[in-house]
Description:
Structural class of chain A: alpha/beta
Largest interface: A-B, 58 and 58 residues
Oligomer: homodimer
Strand content of chain A: 5-15%
Strand order of the largest sheet of chain A: 4-3-5-6
Amino acid sequence: MSPVNKFPFMPRALSQLIESFRLLPGIGPKTAQKLAFSTLKMSSEQVKDISNSLANIKSEIIYCQYCQNISENSICNICTDNNRDNSIICVVEEVMDVYVLEKSGAFKGKFHVLHGSISPANGIGPDEIRIKELVNRVQSDSLIKEIVIATNLNLEGEATAMYINQIFSKSEHKIKITRLARGLPSGSDIEYADETTILHAMGSRVNIDESL
Amino acid sequence: MSPVNKFPFMPRALSQLIESFRLLPGIGPKTAQKLAFSTLKMSSEQVKDISNSLANIKSEIIYCQYCQNISENSICNICTDNNRDNSIICVVEEVMDVYVLEKSGAFKGKFHVLHGSISPANGIGPDEIRIKELVNRVQSDSLIKEIVIATNLNLEGEATAMYINQIFSKSEHKIKITRLARGLPSGSDIEYADETTILHAMGSRVNIDESL
């Protein structure tokens, strides 16, 4: 049932805004209503700001032809940055992951964004995500020596990691394939750790001098 | 710190959209980021829908000259509805309250929206909310016989109810002033009810035949 039916006396512009907010993921009917009503209390300039930002997002953002990350130009700022290591590529599922890794400061190489993960249950095979682009990139760029796979640690992410590893193990251009280490997250309680995490943390245990 | 500083490689349109979403109440930096990134996965039409709805909200909505509720015309659909009781006005703080009361189906009179409540702590006196409009309306419309005050049950709502009652008790045009009943909410556990609620529920206890 749409809010239009629920509230026959609501101005059309308001019920339309509620419907529109519901298009955003994670925004349910109650939140959409709250957000729509709150715009009535905001200044016209503020509402215009949000409207304009949304209008621009699709037109101003394209995908980098090398790494498939979002970009304002055909080649993104990370790919054109000469201070970064060209020999190592970190493969992530989503654009957001690039920013999370960037924020950590842990990686100074280049990225490759797959825009999804292999998920047979949802009908997403290797051709639906940007693996082809990764293979072409690695084959045409002899500088690349290592791929760090940083897909999510769930069924889809694991399947994707496995698939990429298989492709490159068959390829003529031999490169090193690595993955992010698995173990206990910082600040976590062992009491609440799941079995698989414990298994990985134990299996990959390191000399205490190296871990501090 | 703005996301622009946090993520130097983020396209300007995206960081601007994150900043824009943060203008909405209850949207923190993490949610704003999540929402902004999600628009990248939406179709251009969907994003345009949201943008247009926002662009329209301020231009298409005005306030009803009688009840101060939001409206598409100078007199709202509730005020022009001849099937409603003209003798009773329900006074609420916010536009949202009108829709909540409408949805309940419990009230078939007219409304008056104050657009706030008296709050000396926040510098909001009786002149900052639409009490004047209520007084003028009641004085010029002899059909009005009762005002049901439905302000919130907090300090500001109580102060507002008290103020309105005082004004009309001094007025020449004698009308009945009522308030929504206080008591235990439906489906609630007595175990978790606060003392004030219990006090009201006990004080206003009704014959069991009337309550079922």
